[in-house]
């Protein structure tokens, strides 16, 4: 049985923190996965958590339930974004390693290309657990008219990007890795000073290190140009190669005129 910090409150159908409910079955929460009542464990020995209410006879639905720590955190993360409605989010820079197609085992030509610099975006949330065209979106928002997708990942939920599913939509896609949110539980004994909900909010909205770019609308053109450039470079002899300053010029030129934040 997994220890989970968030459960679905029956009356409101909202995810709630174990610190914000009554003890035991009075919490009025169910497991969103198997619908079994959950009991709020608010003891002094362990970190507070929800547990499936056990009956005298062992219940198969409980032992097979997939409602884990990470599932509960993912559900609460979606809700926290939805509740905010609009927010500003700091994003890291996006670098992409381009490799020349003429590379071989003797000579590998690669270059790190800057797709976008670190920035702060203003995000308006449109929905959760939805899609943009055929592409899944845990959170779907807009950044100055551009669609923006957030995907949550954790050890039980991997994600492979498939741009085809965007059907040509010029969307930015970021991943937020929830793996380290398990530290919310670390060294906890009894009630937490900071509720898990507050701790998760800080993790999502203030800690840039969990965020990474999965796709940027301008990456295809920048990568293509950089690859062509590498191709040319590796087909000419070393003495006539561009000097580093000129290579920087090329990258700057490739990026000129593209800004995610810029309106159409
Ligand atoms: Zn369950």
List the helices and strands and how they pair.
Elements: E1 6-9, E2 15-17, E3 24-30, E4 37-41, E5 49-52, H1 60-63, H2 69-84, E6 86-91, E7 94-99, E8 110-116, E9 119-132, E10 135-143, E11 146-153, E12 172-177, H3 196-206, E13 211-215, H4 219-235, H5 244-255
Parallel strand pairs: 11-12
Antiparallel strand pairs: 1-2, 1-3, 3-4, 4-5, 6-9, 7-8, 9-10, 10-11, 12-13
Helix pairs in contact: 2-3, 4-5
The protein binds zinc ion (ZN).
Identify the notable features of this structure and list them briefly.
single chain; 264 residues; alpha+beta; 2 domains; six-stranded mixed sheet; five-stranded antiparallel sheet; 5 helices; 13 strands; 23% helix; 32% strand; disordered C terminus; binds zinc ion
Explain the overall architecture.
- The protein has 264 residues and is α+β, with helices and mostly antiparallel strands.
- The chain has two domains: 6-67, no CATH class; 76-255, no CATH class.
- Helix content is 23%, strand content 32%.
- The chain is built from five helices and 13 strands.
- It has helices at 60-63, 69-84, 196-206, 219-235, 244-255; strands at 6-9, 15-17, 24-30, 37-41, 49-52, 86-91, 94-99, 110-116, 119-132, 135-143, 146-153, 172-177, 211-215.
- The strands form three sheets. It has a six-stranded mixed beta sheet with strand order 6-9-10-11-12-13, with helices on one face.
- Strand 4 and strand 5 (49-52) form a beta hairpin.
- The longest helix is centred in the C-terminal third of the chain and has 17 residues, at 219-235.
- It is elongated.
- Mean pLDDT is 84; it is low at 245-251 and 253-264.
- The protein binds zinc ion.
- Residues 31, 33-34, 36, 52, 65, 67 line the site of zinc ion (ZN).
């Amino acid at each position: 049985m997994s220890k989970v910090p968030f459960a679905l409150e029956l009356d409101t159908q909202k995810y709630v923190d174990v610190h914000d409910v009554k003890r035991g079955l009075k919490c009025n929460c169910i497991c969103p996965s198997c619908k079994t009542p959950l009991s709020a464990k608010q003891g002094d020995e362990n970190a507070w958590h929800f547990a499936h209410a056990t009956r005298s006879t062992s219940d198969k639905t409980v032992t097979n339930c997939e409602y884990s720590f990470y599932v509960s955190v993912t559900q609460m993360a979606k809700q926290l974004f939805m509740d905010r409605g609009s927010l500003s989010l700091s994003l890291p820079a996006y670098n992409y390693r381009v490799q020349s197609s003429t590379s071989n085992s003797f000579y590998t030509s690669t270059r790190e290309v800057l797709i976008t610099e670190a920035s702060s975006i203003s995000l308006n949330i449109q929905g959760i657990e939805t899609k943009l065209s055929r592409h899944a979106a845990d959170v779907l928002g807009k950044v100055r008219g551009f669609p923006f997708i957030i995907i949550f990942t954790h050890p039980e939920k991997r994600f492979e990007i498939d741009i085809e599913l965007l059907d040509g939509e010029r969307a930015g896609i970021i991943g937020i890795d929830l793996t380290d949110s398990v530290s919310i539980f670390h060294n906890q004994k009894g009630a937490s000073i900071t509720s898990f909900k507050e701790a998760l909010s800080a993790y999502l909205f203030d800690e840039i290190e969990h965020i990474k770019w999965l796709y940027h609308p301008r990456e295809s053109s920048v990568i293509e140009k950089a690859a062509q450039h590498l191709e040319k470079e590796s087909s000419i002899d070393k003495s006539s190669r561009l000097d580093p300053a000129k290579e920087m010029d090329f990258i700057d030129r490739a990026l000129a005129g593209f800004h995610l934040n810029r309106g159409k």
